[in-house]
Structure formats: C-alpha cells, structure tokens
Amino acid sequence: MRRYVSMWFLVAMVVTGLAKAAMAQRPPEGQLILGMDFTIVPALLDPSEMTGATAAIFAYALHDALLKPWPGHPMAPALAESWTESPDGLAYEFTLREGVTFHNGDPLTVEDVRYSFVRYQGVFAALLHEKVQAVEILDAHRLRFVLHTPWPDFPTVYSALVSGAAWVVPKAYVERVGDAGFKQHPIGLGPYRFVRATPGIELVLEAYDRYWGKPPAIQRLIFKSVPEPTTLLAMLKTGELDMGSLPPDEAAGVTRDPTLRLVPATTGVTAWLEFLGQWDPTSPWHDRRVRLAANLAIDKQAINDVAGLGLDRPTGSIIPRVLEFALPLEPFPYDPVQAKRLLAEAGYPQGFDAGDLTPFPPILRVAEAVSNDLGAVGIRTQLRTMERQAWARAWREKKLTGLVLADSPRLGNAAIRIEQYVLGTGLAYGSFPDLDALFQQQAVARDRSTREALLHRLQFLMHERVMHAPLLERAVLYGVGPRVDEPAIGLIPLLTFAAPYEEMRLKRP
C-alpha cells in the first residue's frame, strides 16, 4: 500500500483534533427551517437509491460515509480514518474510525460497510459492481475492496457525492425493518437523527449527541417542501423559513429586502444544450454546421445577466473548469449573422422546425431565452416542460426528442462527466468510436499526466465536433433570513446545498 497514506493520515488527525476540541462547545440549541424547492419523499432518505445532489442534501445530515467532501478537502476520510491503494492499483484498504455508533446505539462495523456497498442500487451501481471483484473483511476495523483491473477513479466514484455508495447504513436494522421501513424511519451515522417526516411536506431532524465529529450548534433542523419560488420568498420574508434556494427572479427580491441577505454558491453545475438528433443521418443536427450555428445563435452573456443576475459564468464546455482533468474552453461567440450563414450553407436558408426543447425543470427561464435566440436565426423549437423525476427518467431511457437543456451538478472529475454524458453507454444517444477508445485508455492510466493528456484530447475533440452547446457554469442562490449567523453555503466548494450542517449557526439573542 503506498499512495495517500501520509496525506490522509494528517487530514484525519486534523479532523479528529478539531472534532475533539469542539466537544467543549455549548450544547446545540434552537431550530432552523430550510425551504426545499422540491417534494421531500421517503426515497430521498435512503442512500442506496441516491441519484444526485438532491438526495445528498439529506444524506449529509442523516448519514455518514467512508469518504466525503469536507471544507478544504475534496475527498476527506470520515468514517474511514485512513485509506490506502495497493502498488498494483488492484486493492483499496480502509481503516474504520473506532467508537462510532448509529443513531439507535448500534456500533459501526465493517460488515455494515460491505452490506451498504452490496445494497447500493443508484446510477453507478452497475459500474461499481462490475469493477469490484470482492469486498474483503480483514479484521474488526479494516476492509479491502479488490478490483478486477486497475481503476484509478474508484475512490472518486465510490465516495459520498459521486455515486453515494460510500454512505453507510446499519445492516441489522435494515434487515429487520426492510427497505420500506428504513425509508419511513432511517437510522444513520450523521450529525442529525430522524424525528419524523410528513411525505411531501416536511422532515424534522434533531442533533445526535453521540456524533463522532464536531457537534452541531443547532438542535433541530426542519426541511419544508416549498416548490413554488414566490411562496418560498414570501415565507422567507415572514420568517416562516430561515433559508431557501431561489431562482434569479425571486433571488432579486431578496436583495430588495433589508432583513434578508442573498448568499451565492459557486458550484459544479453546468447547463448545456444536448443535440439528440446528431446521431441520426436524416436529422439537421447531424450536420456540424447546424450545431455550430446553434452555438453562435445563443447570447450566453445576456442570458447570464437576465436569468442569472450576472453571477453565472459563460462556458465552452459541459465540464466545469474547476473539476480535475477539465480542459478550460472559452464559449463560442455570439454571432447570429454567421449562424444564419451556416444554416444556409447546410441547406436551411429559411431555418427549420427543431421540435421539442425540453429543459431540466428549474432552469425554465434559461430555456425560454435559448428558444428565443434559436428562433431569431430560424431554428424553431417548442418548449416542453416536465416534472423533474419524469424528465430524468425519460432522458435516461432515451425517450426524449429534439433538444434537451441539461443541467448537471455531477461531481468527481472530467472522466465521470464524460462517461455519463458523452459515451453511448451513458445518457448520450450515440458515440464516436475514437472517443470511446480514448476514454478506455484514460480509464486504466495510473499516471496522472497521461490521464490528463488523454482527457484533454477527448474534450478538445468534443469541442471541435460541436457535440453540445455549452452555456453556463451556474451559481446557486440562497435567501437567508435574519436569525441565521452561518448558513454553511459554499463552505464545501461546488456543492449546491448547505454543508456541513454542524457548521450552521444561529445568531445569539
């Protein structure tokens, strides 16, 4: 075992030392109410079904993982006080933190970790279970993941916020109450324990006094479903909510209220247009000139100013430049004249009917602006809105047509984004054989500079072939009420939600 040992040992010592020093702080007190712009359902409380950042909002409070992002550390040891990689890259060994207990008092065991991995059935389940040959228990506090072949991205994919497979649940409890029972009353290892839930309305959590890390400063967290942004803003103004994520229109209202403050978070969320028809030889989108025309037709800076309060960042890539192995690419310029010229060269001097433009639900205003810009050069679209879960399912099952306005917070690194959105085995409706080959080469390259060169080449070709219309690296905007001292927004870079919850503080009377 060789890599990461010294670095992560030091990180673990620092985290543990800070946690112990914090034990002397005052007991948690008060309550904080957070508005969620989606419906809270029981499945979101079970990490085995975790599909993205939405579920991680609750996992960070209720559960804990072997590895997870931490302030200042993109992948810090949590339940694992240390981890190592074997010299041949075929094994990863984890040593568990001792004295950790679930909310029901049961001790954390290596069997719980193995069980949680086997039970995981999220979007990365097939990949993880294909790559991992065995999970071996070495002793009461150590276990080893054995791979079929070297896979440098294993720790990244396995970690809490990429796949979510590293979140740990209590085997004995889950087997006793069943999956449905666990969703109704989850037991975890996180800083907050479950109190009660009213599906679709609210979730109530309380500070767990035996949490291994830093004790929370707030006794009770209440998550309320408030899907309507204008209602959420009104509840912030009346004090019915203390915090909530808002789209730009309502976020602008926060800046006009002296009792509230607007807190933006720089995230790893990117928005782009997906040309679903580019793989169909009979579709206009099969022609690179048409795809380039669409890119040139969209005024990304204007969309940022109007729909993002100027806090988003126009981009030339679907991969945020802050992710590891990302190739920074400048956006295509806004040039509607050239866009029309390209359409004429491609045989569409009068434009064409492009069918549906289906956006990820929270970015409807961006979709409207994109549709207007495309229409101005002759690419006519019909805006089609869908509920969030239905949209995700339809794209995953490849049932959408026309254009998709994608919006992804997927963390990890450039390879993980590419695997999901560029390869035909992911969400893309087709793929290029040479890009597939480049991806497979980088997937087994253990030398970092070699991987970076391969992934940069792959991203350059994606850009050259105009496979997408990248738009914005988006900020997430939170309205914060007067009772909140520390909202914990942006403490962990790239996250779209407040974390860690134990860092949140209310103002003292």
Write the layout of secondary structure elements.
Layout: H1 5-22, E1 31-36, H2 53-62, E2 67-70, E3 73-77, E4 80-85, E5 91-96, H3 110-119, H4 125-131, E6 132-139, E7 142-147, H5 154-158, H6 171-184, E8 192-198, E9 202-207, E10 220-225, H7 229-238, E11 243-246, H8 248-255, E12 261-275, H9 288-297, H10 300-307, E13 313-314, H11 336-345, E14 352-359, H12 364-376, E15 379-383, H13 388-396, E16 403-408, H14 414-421, H15 433-443, H16 448-464, E17 468-480, E18 484-486, E19 505-506
Parallel strand pairs: 1-10, 1-11, 14-15, 14-16
Antiparallel strand pairs: 2-3, 4-5, 5-7, 6-7, 8-9, 9-10, 11-17, 12-16, 12-17, 13-17, 18-19
Helix pairs in contact: 7-8, 9-11, 15-16
Description:
The N terminus is likely disordered. The chain is of the alpha+beta class and 509 residues long. Strands 1, 8, 9, 10, 11, 12, 13, 14, 15, 16 and 17 form an eleven-stranded mixed β-sheet that branches. It starts with a helix and ends with a strand.
